[in-house]
Amino acid sequence: MDNINSFNVKDALNILKNGGVVFTIIKNEPSFFKYENSLIFSFNNKSSFYISTDDFIELYVLNSFYLYEENNEETIDIARDNEYYSMNSIKK
């Protein structure tokens, strides 16, 4: 994470309000945040919940946040994947 820009909670909130997704590391696990319907949606492998923007600032004021950017090279195109496998099953 050293080469990645980190943000404080107020900058993270601005990113969220502009449609971005941010994450922070809590107990060696990433927790992700996005803005939905004037609330912050928090999710990780173990839980998910909504909190107000004021609670977000209060709870995470000491955390560093990072911008989450999906790596398009590694994502799977589900439609293309299904098409490939359906064509293979027809050939057999």
Question: Topology of this protein?
Answer:
Elements: E1 6-7, H1 9-17, E2 22-26, E3 29-36, E4 39-43, E5 48-51, H2 53-60, E6 65-67, H3 78-91
Antiparallel strand pairs: 1-6, 2-3, 2-6, 3-4, 4-5
What composes the largest sheet? 6 strands, antiparallel
Derived from helix and strand composition plus strand pairing, the structural class reads alpha+beta
Tell how many strands the DSSP assignment holds: 6
The CATH architecture category equals Alpha-Beta Complex
CATH class: Alpha Beta
The averaged pLDDT comes out at 86
CATH topology: Cathepsin B, Chain A
- Spatial shape: elongated
N-to-C series of helices and strands: EHEEEEHEH
**Radius of gyration over alpha carbons?**
18 Å
User: How many structural domains can be distinguished in the coordinates?
Assistant: 1
Spatial sequence of strands, sheet with the most strands: 1-6-2-3-4-5
The number of helical segments is 3
State the share of residues found in helices, binned by percent. 25-40%
What is the straight-line distance between the termini? 47 Å
| Beta-strand proportion | 25-35%
Low-confidence stretches: none
